[in-house]
Amino acid sequence: MGKSLGFIAGSLIGAAAGTAIGILVAPRAGAETRAMASDMANDAWDSARDLYEQGAKQVRETVDDFGPMVDSKTDELREKVDLARERMDRLRESLNEAVSGGSVKPAADVVVETADCAAAAAEAKANAGA
């Protein structure tokens, strides 16, 4: 990539130098040649300024369009987070009601019972094999 960029830059510089030398060596009066060079420089400056202004305008429009899009996505994300919080709160409330009502045992009791069941199953298997 670097070699091709260098080649392009060298080509452009060579073309500009060739044009400048051609203008200066051309069989015209000095004042006419200077006027042509001045016109060409002014045209190049105007073109560069127009190109800059177009680019700046496009960047401004892109930034202006990007802001509302970010705000929209942020609002959507906040709504989803709020909905998830509401669901978690409802789930927590229903779980608390079930635990306090005695229909569900806390997780610590379930783990202990599961471990006891696993130990009992292992003991029963060992007794069956003996």
UniProtKB/TrEMBL annotation:
Keyword presence, Transmembrane: yes
Membrane-spanning residues: 6-26
Keywords attached to this entry: Membrane, Transmembrane, Transmembrane helix
Domain of life: Bacteria
Keyword Transmembrane assigned: yes
PANTHER family: GENERAL STRESS PROTEIN (PTHR35792)
Name under which the protein is recorded: YtxH domain-containing protein
Annotated organism of origin: Coriobacterium glomerans (strain ATCC 49209 / DSM 20642 / JCM 10262 / PW2)
